[in-house]
Amino acid sequence: MRPRKDDGRAVPGLILGALLLAGGVSACSPKRSEQPAETKPQQPTEAKPRQTARTDIVLTGAEAMGDWTSDAPGVKRKITVADLPPPNEKESVSNRPRKADRPAGALPKVPAGFTANEFASGLENPRVVKVAPNGDVFVVESREGRVQVLRDTDKDGKAESRSVYVEGLKKPFGLAFYPADAETPTHVYIANTDSVVRYPYRPGDSAASGPAEKIVDNIPSGGEALGGGGHWTRDIAFSKDNQRMFVSVGSRSNVSDDDSEKRRASILAFTPDGKNEVLYASGIRNPVGIAIEPATGALWTSVNERDELGDNLVPDYVTRVQEGGFYGWPWFYLGKNQDPRHEGKHPALRDKVIVPDVLIQSHSASLAMCFYTGQQFPPEFRGHIFAAEHGSWNRSRRTGYKVIRVPVTNGKAEGYYEDFLTGFVNDDGDVWGRPVGVAVARDGALLVTDDQSNTVWRVAFGR
Hints:
Region (Disordered): 27-109
Strand content: 25-35%
Pfam family, one: TrAA12
Radius of gyration: 21 Å
CATH architecture: 6 Propeller
Protein name: Sorbosone dehydrogenase
Distance between the termini: 56 Å
CATH topology: Neuraminidase
Domain Pyrroloquinoline quinone-dependent pyranose dehydrogenase beta-propeller: 108-310, 351-458
């Protein structure tokens, strides 16, 4: 069905997305998650003494709007729509992370009772990490166009071997085993920036055992804008019943609504053979990470929201995705709030915008996510979400550069998030690590990729 121009009448369900899919949306520059680190200082005021934030309460209101100096394991923040300031384009700044070497012996900070260690180092731009049912660790190196398999053969928490599973890919990001949750998957699916391919798989494969089969060849890609756009990553996940394949596609620009945004800023759904495409949800500026909640089978996403409206707009978010849902981009954000750059457009859509479940501090660059399905961590962690915050570029004081925990009870988010893995910013405000991917290892440890120090970190409890 072709989208029609808004004439003030209600636009039903998926037609909202059709306005985006057929009409266009623009992406963020090398999306804030992709902003390159700078080697020359740009904001000399970044350094300041670290703050001590309380961990016995959930910070709300102004207290929840911190920066890297107040981040620490256990700090909890709850941000609501009522906390948001009015948009202020004049307040927008470019404060890209200044790259620092990892200090000698430095490790990320973790909560009491946990330990962090290098699982693997010396990788090249490690992004998504996934764990096969047999425990093999698959790491997607996007810039290199390859996937490596890491193995901890002696169970000491460090990978002793690595092999190239496949190379020659085009900006790969998402990876999934099919059938999902099977002990013996038959295929590995990989989401390139412009396609989805799959390889035959047998447990224990160190390299692809057969040629690639391209099952989707027209994922929107190319021409990504810089400086508030450039969303080239594509994540992939299968429904709990293995009947649907979800593919996330970020916008091309920050807030454009032209034809270049066709089939972007959305989550698409296919059958596992790559056919029968439908628009699952729309108005999601950059749904970098997607995952299935194990108990309910609901689809969730981790999202980069738009830039250049001020330090505290617009919050990123983690949310359950409603089928047919419209999340506002580019005309609205977080409910009825109109983006001033699209003043007066599509008034009929205002009341249809879904408010996400958990708002995350603006410009954090929320990337990959996973549900904790292991048994190693304390019981209160089970079923909760871990999400990687790659770090800000469009904020006067840095935020992000950490992994957060999002509590979920009976399939519903509790509304706040908690710092879990921090410490990637040094005392001068320079950045030595940037989390991207998260996955649960077979032994229940959490694996975290870091595409600045080119490391896979392992976080364990009581070891």
